[in-house]
């Protein structure tokens, strides 16, 4: 069953969507975390159950992250989302340390898609359904400039500022 909750963050009200899972901490695997006004954001659908109690561990981690007390999330993501290429890109993004950035070109190299693959990497990153916890905000342009972010560049800049990452 699909469950959801909202979380009041410094970026606005986040929408958390999950699938009940016997193996997940708290019983829910995260499917989506959307920022307000995000391009392609999840929307609550008929049949979904409001269940904030299912997201207590996730919201505790988000609270600690936004307070500057957590640098690495420990959240179970639902399996099966995205193409094989997108999942490879998302795994590479998950490896960018807190407070650091990587370029789209560096991510393309890590997934074996250097050169022309930079655009495909950007597209895959743009389809990341787990903003904040899968840190696509840490990916910047080759010139150090902030480029695309589904939650908007002000949110990307705010997240990088929170982490102390160098923002040009």
Automatic annotation (TrEMBL):
This protein's superkingdom? Bacteria
* Enzyme Commission (EC) number: 2.1.1.63
**Record-annotated membrane-spanning stretches:** none
User: What InterPro entries would the database entry show?
Assistant: MethylDNA_cys_MeTrfase_DNA-bd, MethylDNA_cys_MeTrfase_DNAb, MethylG_MeTrfase_N, MGMT, MGMT_N_sf, WH-like_DNA-bd_sf
User: Which Gene Ontology cellular component annotation is one that this UniProt entry carries?
Assistant: cytoplasm
Which Pfam family, just one, is annotated for this protein? DNA_binding_1
EC class: transferase
Keywords, alphabetical: Cytoplasm, DNA damage, DNA repair, Methyltransferase, Transferase
Question: What functional role does this protein have?
Answer: Involved in the cellular defense against the biological effects of O6-methylguanine (O6-MeG) and O4-methylthymine (O4-MeT) in DNA. Repairs the methylated nucleobase in DNA by stoichiometrically transferring the methyl group to a cysteine residue in the enzyme. This is a suicide reaction: the enzyme is irreversibly inactivated.
Miscellaneous comment: This enzyme catalyzes only one turnover and therefore is not strictly catalytic. According to one definition, an enzyme is a biocatalyst that acts repeatedly and over many reaction cycles.
Q: What's the protein here called?
A: Methylated-DNA--protein-cysteine methyltransferase
């Amino acid at each position: 069953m699909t469950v959801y909750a909202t979380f009041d963050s410094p970026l606005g009200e986040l929408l958390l969507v999950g699938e009940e899972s016997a193996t997940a901490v708290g019983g829910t695997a995260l499917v989506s975390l959307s920022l307000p006004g995000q391009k392609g954001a999840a929307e609550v659908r008929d049949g979904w159950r409001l269940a904030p109690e299912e997201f207590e561990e996730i919201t505790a981690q988000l609270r600690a992250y936004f307070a500057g007390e957590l640098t690495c999330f420990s959240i179970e993501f639902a399996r099966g989302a995205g193409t094989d290429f997108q999942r490879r890109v998302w795994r590479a993004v998950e490896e960018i340390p807190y407070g650091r950035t990587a370029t789209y070109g560096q991510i393309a190299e890590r997934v074996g898609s250097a050169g022309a693959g930079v655009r495909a990497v950007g597209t895959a990153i743009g389809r990341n359904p787990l903003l904040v916890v899968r840190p696509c905000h840490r990916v910047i342009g080759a010139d150090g400039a902030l480029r695309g972010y589904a939650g908007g560049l002000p949110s990307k800049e705010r997240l990088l500022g929170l982490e102390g990452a160098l923002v040009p």
